[in-house]
């Protein structure tokens, strides 16, 4: 009878340990959905999903705008 009780108590102990581990697996490390969303955005930023505007494109757009302004003034000067 002692052997059966020992195996039952060890089985119960194993089952309790599994229940505790299973319960902790469902726990979320974020306290709110806003915190979770912020973590998702940070991860996506690090992955490069949301690329920052590069200086090169801003420089090209500025140069093109300047050239168009100069060309417009030249056309107005010639046509006078």
Provide tags for this entry:
rod-shaped, 0% strand, mainly alpha, single chain
What does the main sheet amount to?
A: none
How widely separated are the two ends?
A: 115 Å
Low-confidence stretches: none
Order of helices and strands: HHH
SS elements, strand count: 0
Coarse morphology = rod-shaped
Supply Rg. 34 Å
Measured as a percent range, the helix fraction is: over 70%
Helix-strand makeup class? mainly alpha
Give the averaged pLDDT, no decimals.
79
Q: How much of the sequence is in beta strands?
A: under 5%
Q: What is the overall number of helices?
A: 3
What does this structure look like?
The protein is mainly alpha-helical and 80 residues long. It is 80% helix and 0% strand. The protein contains three helices and no strands. It is rod-shaped and about 105 Å long.
What's the gist of this structure?
The chain has 3 helices and no strands. The chain has helices at 2-25, 33-47, 55-79.
Please write out the topology.
Elements: H1 2-25, H2 33-47, H3 55-79
